[in-house]
Amino acid sequence: MRYSQLFGKTNKTAPHDADSTNARLLTQAGFINQLMAGVYTYLPLGLRVLKKIHNIVRDEMNKLGASEIYMPALHPKDVYDKTQRWDKIDVLFKLEGHGEKQYALGSTHEEIVTPLVQQYVHSYKDLPLSVYQIQDKFRNEQRAKSGLLRGREFSMKDLYSFHLTEEDFLDFYEKSKQAYLNVFKRCGLDALIVEASGGVFSKFSHEFQVPTQYGEDLIYHCECGFAQNREIAEVKDGDACPSCKIGKVIETKSIEVGNIFPLKTRFTDAFGFKVQGPDRKMHDVLMGCYGIGPSRVMGSIIEIHNDDRGMIWPKSVAPFDVHIVSLSNKDAMIKEKIENTAESFMRDLELQGVEVLWDDRDASAGEKFADADLIGIPLRLVVSEKSLAEDSVEWKERHEENARLVKLTNLVEEVTITVLP
Q1: pTM
Q2: What domains can you pick out in the chain, each with its CATH number?
Q3: Does 213 have pLDDT greater than 90?
C-alpha cells in the first residue's frame, strides 16, 4: 500500500486530552480518532492491528473447541427482568423504542446466550458446549479514560461454556487459562494469572494482568506463580509468599487484559435451563464466562512496547510487516530509479505474502524517518541514492538502533525469511 493513498496520517501534535501513552501515540500515528470520551474510530492502520488481534483470539478459541457466533447488541428488557439485573448493572445503556418498549445496549451477553443455547441443548448428549463472539460492547462508564484501556464502546471477545458436571467445567476452565496465555503471548504480552473476587458467582475468578508501571490495577505476586488482585489480597509487598513459603511477594501495577469466572447456575436457573442426564433425571447446567478485550489488548501493547520515538509493534500484530521508505532526489533520473526500485520491491514482497507500506510521499528524509518510528512497523527498508550506489537498501529493525545494508539481489528472500512465520 502507498502511504500517500492511506486514509489517516500522522499528527505531530499530541491530543490535549490524551491521558495515556496508548491514547497519545495511537492518535498521533493515525491509528485511531476520538469521537468522544471513550469512543474511537479505528482508522486503516488501527483496524489492521485490531483485526490481527481478533484473528489470534479466534484461532485460540477455535482450538478450545468453541463455536463462533454473533449475537445482537440490542437487547430487550424482559431478559434482564428474568435475571433481575435490569437495575443492577450500573453501566447499562438503556433506551426506549416504539410502543414504550425498553431496550439495552449489550454490556455483556449472559442474558442473550443462555436462552439461545437452551433452544439447542435438550439432553446431556448435547453437552459440554461452548460458544463465543467478537463484538463491540457498550458500557456507560462514569469516567472513560486511558485511551483504549477503558472505553464506553469497545471490542470484546466473550465466550460462554455449558457443562453437566463440575468436573467437566473445571477441566474446560483450566484449558481456557492456557488458551488465554497463548493469546497474550502471541500478542507480545507476558500476562500473569491473578486470583480476583468472584463477586456474586463464586469465591474466586481469574484475571490476566500485564505488569507495567502505567497500569491502573495493583497486584501482589511471587515468582512461583502466586498472584492476587489488591481487592482480595491479604499480603503486602515484601511478605513471604503464602504459596511457596520461600519467595517474597512483590507489589506491581498492571493492566487487566482478560478475565474468566464461574457462573455456576446463576443464569441457567433464571431461565429454567436444565437437561436430562444419563440417569433420566433433570440436572442443572453449569456455566462459565471468559472475556478478552481485543481493543484493550491493543492499548496494552503500546503501553509496554514503545520508546521516545513512537510505537514498537510485535510482528504478530503490526499493521504491516515492512515499511519501505524511498528518499526523494533532486535529479529526476535518480528519483525515478529510486521510486521504481521501491515499487518493484513492494510488488515482489506482496507476491510472497508480505504486507508492505510504502512511504511514497515527496517529503524530507527526517519527516519520513520520524513517521516510520512513530508508526512502529517492525522492519524499515530505505531506498536512496546512497543505498543504490551500493546495489543495496538500508535495513533497520524498529527495536534496534543500528542499520545495515542488504544487497538488492538478496532482499526479497531475506525479508521473507525474517517477517513471515
Answers
A1: 0.96
A2: 3-307 (3.30.930.10), 322-419 (3.40.50.800)
A3: no
